From TrEMBL:
It is an enzyme of class 2 (transferase). One of its GO terms (cellular component) is cytoplasm. This is glutathione transferase. It comes from Mycena belliarum. Its EC number is 2.5.1.18. PROSITE patterns: GST_CTER, GST_NTER. Residues 2-83 form the GST N-terminal domain. One of its GO terms (biological process) is glutathione metabolic process. SUPFAM superfamilies: GST C-terminal domain-like (SSF47616), Thioredoxin-like (SSF52833).
Amino acid sequence: MPLKIYGPVQAGGSLGAVLMVLAEKQVPFELVPIDMGKYEHKTPAYRALQPFAQTPVMDEDGFILFESRAICRYLAEKYADRGTALIPTEPKAKARFEQGASIEFANFHPYAVPIIMEGLGKPLKGGATDKRVYDAAVAGLKERLAAYEVVLGTQRFIGGDEFTLADVFHVGHGAFLAHAGCDLMTSSGPNVARWFGEITARPSWTRWVRDGDAVRSTAAYDSE
Ligand SMILES: N[C@@H](CCC(=O)N[C@@H](CS)C(=O)NCC(=O)O)C(=O)O
């Protein structure tokens, strides 16, 4: 049975990371679309897979795994000898990668998500942006990206000098920021702009987007 990935019909930043790893590793898979607009992620059947009612979920012959970063790490290690390495093995390179992965979780994701929710998610559903929440998250991200600018002045990628999962973890949500009215990935300094431009230009990412919009849908899928 092919690997199954349950993902939102509507584009999702967390799913984006998993898709990128699958493409970097050239692993075929089947997408099981979950229509969050119809609350398919809240059904008892879906909650049996993912008790937190979130996407994505991986099903590998009955081995169910959720949390996008855990799925990415599993796939990167399982297919270590295939495609791009994604997780270094040399201890210092691996430590630098772990530093980058922690930077994303602690300093990027907590700010990017409210910007995307307030600037894109709510308006798409006909709701109103909470300007205070949005502005506070933009200010927080701006401050953090100033530190990224320093880090990326001494290394090519956020997890060291090689492209790693730490970069992958940034792409999905980072790419949505512009659609949420936030230009920080290009305006935070030359190093951040160079880095984010480079990681979002990878074919493993561009194949899932078209004209700047995520077109990830079952119809657009080509997992080969
Ligand atoms: N930490 C989770 C977050 C997943 C997540 O927030 N997924 C979004 C779609 S991108 C979702 O399911 N949102 C629905 C909800 O939280 O109710 C992961 O990385 O997999």
